[in-house]
Amino acid sequence: MASGLEVADIFRRHGEAFLQARAGHVGRSERRVMAAIAACRTAALGGHVEQCQDCGSTRIAYNSCRNRHCPKCQGLARLQWLADRKAELLPAPYFHVVFTLPPAAAEIAFQNKAVVYAILFRAAAAALATIAADPRHLGAQLGITAVLHTWGQTLTHHPHIHCIVPGGGPSLDYTRWVACRPGFFLPIRVVARLFRRLFLQDLQRAFQTGRLGFFGELAGLAEPAAFARRVRQLQRIDWIVYAKPPVGGPEQVLAYLARYTHRVAIANSRLIALSAGNVRFTWKNYRQAGTTKVMTLQADEFIRRFLLHTLPDGFHRIRHYGFLARGGRNSLLALCRSLLAAANAFADSSPLDKPDPTCTQNQSEPSVIGRDIAVCPDCGGLMRRITAVPRFSSHGQPFYCDTS
Considering Cα of 147, then 152, then 155, then 160, what sign does the dihedral take? Predict the structure, then answer.
């Protein structure tokens, strides 16, 4: 049963104390995120009055903050994004591949988010594309949708990339569709080794060109010898890359994508209680078969962990590569469909109606259709705006009333 508690409630009750205790140590981006989430759908942002055309009931609808870190603002953005992607899906099984940074690289990423997260994207996409293009493996060009997540279930910093990829692609000369073997995508160990090499090469270039900064416990890495030792350490360990079972056909992919796009560090539905300055929330322990557990953190620590995942301004956390990249996307997708049709890849069973039997994610996926907020909750009639509600003056008010 939902508690009704929101991240916004935690910010409103404990945000000012958090900022005062860390005066000078919370960045402008983090402050804006806190202010936006705390003010979201409150009088601080203004709104409008709606009235049902049928029963006449009225309600005040306050404006959303539209901040991409806000748990309440991602539903509609996700639906619009999924609607745009639906036209791009191909009648083929899809695979899900996850690239994770080891802790020794993740801590460098945290202090250099824009630079290192971009390297993570490039290395993951290039590793997949390079191995797929090799005739010994697939000999095809891929279309990759990559999504950055930076959190673990307990809100610790855990940067990783989710890649959703069709199980095949056009041959390198664009004359035929090359499909993966049933239930098998690419040799993941080979992909992982290439991913490690590409990431570390790019990381070294970033260091040599002065694009990395280090402070606190990592300050010593600013010395070339110390940085070189860190790179050698990272070269000696295995990097975690894994492929999940095939997702299924296009309809299953839409539901599957809904689990990963526009997600924030923690959903309000996971919050249980806020009392005596402590936050209780659920989390899944994947080392114990996904067992659901409850964690309790002091509100100050909960806010600190949430803000670990604030992204740099303007940073794109969803990116497309290969035949899904912006340049020529429409023409390449049309070519892929014609090649698939010519190959008659799914003559016996259309994935639009019959999902891949090897897929483990076809059941109980979240719906990508949200509640229509234009419908009256009392009678089901149509709500329409009748007047505006001005923003509440921020003068003399707590931090969350200032979203500038």
Answer: negative
H-run or E-run covering 151: strand 143-151
Residue 182 lies in a domain: yes
Place of tokens 């250099």: 112
| pLDDT tens-digit map of 284-320 | 998 888 899 999 999 999 999 999 999 999 999 999 9
2-17: per-residue pLDDT in tens? Answer: 678 999 999 999 999 9
DSSP letter (8 states) at residue 42? S
Task: Report which secondary-structure segment, H or E, holds 169.
Answer: strand 168-170
Cβ 87 vs Cβ 254: under 8 Å: no
Domain count, the chain: 1
Dihedral (CA of 103, 104, 107, 112) sign: negative
Q: Is 178 a member of any domain?
A: yes
> 388, 375, 370: which is closest to 73 by C-alpha?
370
Q: How far apart are CA 251 and CA 28, in angstroms?
A: 40
Return d(Cα 69, Cα 307) in angstroms, integer.
9
CB 280 within 8 A of CB 234: no
Across 75-185, the runs of DSSP E, i.e. the strands, are: 94-100, 143-151, 157-166, 168-170, 177-179
> Strand order of the sheet with strand 47-52?
58-62, 47-52, 383-389
pLDDT band at residue 400 under the 50/70/90 scheme = low
> Residue 180 is part of which domain span?
88-265+313-343
What is each CA distance from 301 to 7, 20, 43, 298, in whole angstroms?
13, 14, 28, 5
Q: What's the CA gap between 239 and 258, in Å, rounded?
A: 27
162 belongs to a structural domain: yes
Residue 27: partners with Cβ closer than 8 Å, 6 or more residues away: 310
Dist CA 119 CA 124 (whole Å): 8
Is residue 59 situated within a structural domain? no
Angle between helices 103-111 and 113-133 (to 10 degrees): 130
Nearest Cα neighbor of 164 from 290, 286, 311, 320 is 320
Question: Cα separation of 134 and 125, whole Å?
Answer: 14
pLDDT grade for 189, boundaries at 50, 70 and 90: very high
CB 237 within 8 A of CB 102: yes
Question: What residues form DSSP beta bridges with 194?
Answer: none
CA distance 75 to 262: 8
Please give the DSSP secondary-structure letter assigned to residue 376: -
